[in-house]
Amino acid sequence: MSRFDLLIRGGLVFDGTGRPGREADVAADGGRLTVLPPGAAADAAEVIDARGRAVAPGFIDVHTHSDGVALLRQDDRELVRAAVIQGVTTEISGNCGSGLFPALSERVDAMRADTRVTFGGDVGMYQDFTGFAEAHARVPRANHLASLVGHGTLRSGVLGPVDRPATPTELAAMCDLLDRALSQGAAGLSTGLIYTPGTYASTDEVVALAAVAARHGKPYVTHLRDEMSRVEEALEEAVEIARRSGAPLHVSHHKTAGRYAWGRTERTLPRIAELRAGGMDVTCDVYPYTAGSTALAAMLPPWANDGGLAALTRRLGSPEERDRMRRAIAEGVPGWENTVGNGGWDRISVACAPRNPQTEGRTIAELAAAAAADPLDVVAELLLSEGGEVTIISHSMIEDDVRRVLAAPYAMIGSDGVPKPGGRPHPRWAGTFPRVLGHYVRELGLLTLESAVHKMTGMAAARFGLAGRGVIRDGAHADLVVFDPDTVADGATFTDPLLPPSGVEAVVVGGSVVVREGVETGARPGTVLAL
C-alpha cells in the first residue's frame, strides 16, 4: 500500500485543462501530486473526504495589488488571509505599472510616499526582484506570490514623477533595470497607462521596454490607456506595442467602462478574437463585478500629479488650480481617460479614508451635497486631509459587458484586489473566485464548471509561465482547492467586504493544508516564485 503526506479521496477532479470532472483520488507527497484511481490502496498522514466535492488546482489570481500587504503590521491578518480563504494559492502582483521594485538606491526614499498611497502603508522599496523576494521570505505566507515589473515604478525610479519624455540614456537605464528583474525571476512587464507617471510615456517608450520582456519570453501586461470612450483606440495601441516588441499581450481587467463605452465589448472582444485567429498571442483577465477601485487622485487630470505627491498637494491647496481641475474634468484633456467626465461624482464612493471614516461608503456627490460644496473642493480637502491616501470605488460598468468578457474563451480571472488596511475595500479581494463559481457558473450557467476552473488555473499558469502549476497531474505542484459546487458562493459585500466565502472547504499549498473547513490552519508554506 502506498503512503503519502496527504490523500484527498472521493472527489470529482477538475484538472485545470478544461476537461470535464472525473472521479479520482489525489495524493500529495514531498510537495508533488499523484493522481490515483478512485478507492486505490493508499494511506496518508492526513486524509480529506471529498465525496460530493470538486477538487481543482489551486486558483491563480492573475491580477492583484497585494505586493506589500503581508509586509504590513500583522494585525491585518484578516486582510492578508482573504485570498487564500477563497482558494487562491498563487497571487500575481506588480500590476497596472506599480510595484515595490526596482528602485535605484538614491531614489528609494523619494519613492516611499508613492508606496504608502498605493499599498496603504510604508512597506518599503527594493532595489531588485531578489530584494523583494527576500523581504517576503522573512514574513511567512500561506500562499505563493509572483510579481510583474511595473513600468510606472521603473519610470519613477529613473526620471521621477515628471511629465516629460525619457531621454535615450534614461530609457536605457529603465531597460537595464527591467532586464535584471526579469533575469531574477519577475513574471513580465506591466503598465498602467491611465496612471501617472505611466500616462506620461509615449508608445515608443513602452515598445522599447516590452521588447526586453519579449527577449525573456515574458508577457506585456497592460492596463490600457483608456478603458472608457477611447477603449478601442487604446486596445490598438496595446496591439501595436505587442507587434513591434514581439511580446505576448495580456490586457488587464478588460472592461468598457463609463456611459460612452457601455456595450463596446461587442467590438473589442471580436477584435481580440480576430487577432488570435491571425496568430497573435493575446489574452485578458476580468473580475466579476460592475464596479472597479483605484486611488481618488487618479480622478484628477494627469498634469495635477506632475511632480508627485508634494506637487499635487500644493495644487490642491490653490483655488486657481482647483478651478483648472474642474474645467479639465468638465471639458476633458486630450489623451486622458477622465473617469468622472465619463460617469459622474455620483458613481465614485469613498472606500478608504482612515482620518475621515465618516466618508467611507458615501459617494463624492453625496458628500458634496451634505456640505453644500462643489465636489472637486470636497475631493481636494479629503486628499489633503489624508495625505493623498484615499481609495475609491467606481461604479462604472454594466453587467452585459462583464458577462461577455467572462464568457470569452481567452479570458482568465483576476481579482484586481487592492488589499489596503482599513475602510471598505472592494469585495473582489475576498470574493472573486467563489463569486464566479457560485453566481456565474451555478446560478446563471454562463460558464461550465470545467471552463471556469480552467480560467482560474491552467489558462492562468500557461500565460504567466507557472510551470507545473494550475493542473492536477502526476508530478505537478501540490496546490489544490476542495469546494462544494452546490454551495460555493462569495460572502463579501460592499458594506462588509472581507466576509469569507461559503463552500471552500480545503486549500492545499505545496502539499500542506493551509485552510481546513474554511478556516486557516496556520501553516505557512508559501514562497515568492521566481519564473
From TrEMBL:
Record Gene3D superfamilies: D-aminoacylase. Domain 3 (3.30.1490.130), Metal-dependent hydrolases (3.20.20.140), Urease, subunit C, domain 1 (2.30.40.10)
Coiled-coil stretches noted in the UniProt entry, renumbered to this chain: none
InterPro entries reported in the protein's UniProt record: Amidohydro_3, D-aminoacylase_insert_dom_sf, Metal-dep_hydrolase_composite, Metal_Hydrolase, Metallo-dep_Hydrolases_sf
Span of domain Amidohydrolase: 46-515
SUPFAM superfamilies documented for this protein: Composite domain of metallo-dependent hydrolases (SSF51338), Metallo-dependent hydrolases (SSF51556)
Highest taxon in the source lineage: Bacteria
Descriptive protein name: Amidohydrolase family protein
